[in-house]
């Protein structure tokens, strides 16, 4: 009989640190010469995160929807395909920030995979600053984050650099009352001890309320492709005036002041620019609730065409 494959489901709201964590996990797996595959699911058609996966890792990307509702069947067939590799040790599934982890787990536990997987663990990341300010979130998003916390086998409270120590203690207390069973870690940049996620105990899963993209969350993705260099100040003015319901922006930009391309990341009010070494299309992916796509398009076009 072929060996059983471990499955790790990385859950957590948009921008909580899943890709940051996955990158470290893959480095560790590589150092141990284990063979792993990654399944990534992004809302929207443009993948930014897959750039962070080492070239030799088999990668399946599921676009245009959220694993748990629109492309569950596709996930099933992707997993079947991955299992053809008899040497595979583990599969990592990075869910979109809008996925309900239990519904992803349900797919993994489908009868067609009986005895193929040794374990499937849910690792939930939480942006502690976003949690502290959760009153600014819509009821649906709050509910989704609670569900992601409630069903975690391992709970990683990330971005602790952005809140005070006493706030961290309060947050730990609040989260442990939602999920007293998960092993809980406090991190910055999702740095967790070597292999700690493999030692996590699996917790029996109770019922869950459904809070995902399809029925209650009106998350939309909008992709804009820039043709020109833009002005950094104008761009940051635009960012500052975005509604709170824009949860996440990722993409590539070029600015007047430089000849480089920048990877731009924005999550809960914090922008980050990193120089990109390869030439990539200048796509910007915007994710939020009830996005006014026409308005965003108009605003971005105006940033874009002000330049020669
Ligand atoms: N200040 C701070 N920033 C962090 C920390 N961890 C991650 N980030 C930043 O937060 C942003 C989002 O991190 P990702 O790892 O891409 O988050 P994600 O959950 O994969 O995001 P989605 O794919 O949109 O769901 C990036 O700019 C990270 O560099 C942290 O502990 N502290």
From TrEMBL:
Keyword Iron tagged: no
Keyword list (alphabetical) reads: Chaperone, Hydrolase, Nucleotide-binding
The protein, known as:
Cobalamin biosynthesis protein
SUPFAM superfamilies, alphabetized: Hypothetical protein YjiA, C-terminal domain (SSF90002), P-loop containing nucleoside triphosphate hydrolases (SSF52540)
Q: Show the catalytic activity.
A: GTP + H2O = GDP + phosphate + H(+)
Q: Which InterPro entries match?
A: CobW-likC_sf, CobW-like_C, CobW/HypB/UreG_nucleotide-bd, P-loop_NTPase, Zinc-reg_GTPase_activator
Regarding protein family, the annotation reads: Belongs to the SIMIBI class G3E GTPase family. ZNG1 subfamily.
CobW C-terminal domain boundaries: 219-304
PANTHER family, alphabetized:
COBW DOMAIN-CONTAINING PROTEIN (PTHR13748:SF62), COBW-RELATED (PTHR13748)
Could you confirm whether the keyword Chaperone appears in this record?
yes
Pfam family for this entry, one: CobW_C
